[in-house]
Amino acid sequence: MTNLFRVGLMVAVLGAAACSKEDVEARARDAADKNRASIPDVEGRALAQPVTKSDVKAVQAQLTKLNEYQGEIDGNLDLVTVSAIQAFQRSQGLQPDGLLTSEVKQRLHDATAKQPRS
Question: How far apart are CA 118 and CA 104, in angstroms?
């Protein structure tokens, strides 16, 4: 009976340890999911902004002149263009969100106006 009690106790302890490990892993997964959900999707928001092809084309040309953009000037708002906008925003001390606000457009205009003509 003593050996049976020890075996039962060991099974109970091992079962509790296994459940406890699963609980810890589940809590860690939940915490990681909450962290991911709390991080804003900056690029996704920037890519979804309502802009015209002609506005994007103008911005790409301005960013090219400022050596911030090396892609094709095609008017397509893609990750390369958004990254270039963010780099320009950083250089201007703005929040690098990739959004083409009126302030960003004005600063691009002002910055390219100061550039020598090529």
Answer: 23
